[in-house]
Amino acid sequence: MELEKQANIVGAIHDRLDQYVGQRLSVRANMGRSKIVESEGVLVQVHPQLFIMEVDRKRGRKTRQSYQYVDVLTGTVELSQNGESLFQPLIDELENSDDKEAVK
Known about the structure:
By secondary structure, the protein is α+β, with helices and mostly antiparallel strands. It has three helices and six strands.
């Protein structure tokens, strides 16, 4: 995938997440070595390179976790709301456009 195209997609992810600030989201993060962390929390802030979630922990405690938009692009981090993926249609569209370019 071209660098310019990746930058545009990361920008689109940022813009879309900006609409969800203050809303509850589910996060599924692949931390490597077969470790997958699933949590739920509120999207607190979006910054140019990353976004911050306030995640619920045991006994009513909360922690803040930050993720990069590139992790969403690569599928390392998946975000959903009410069981529906926020970015799966975008990822599917990317895969289809890459297949079309490979055929050319």
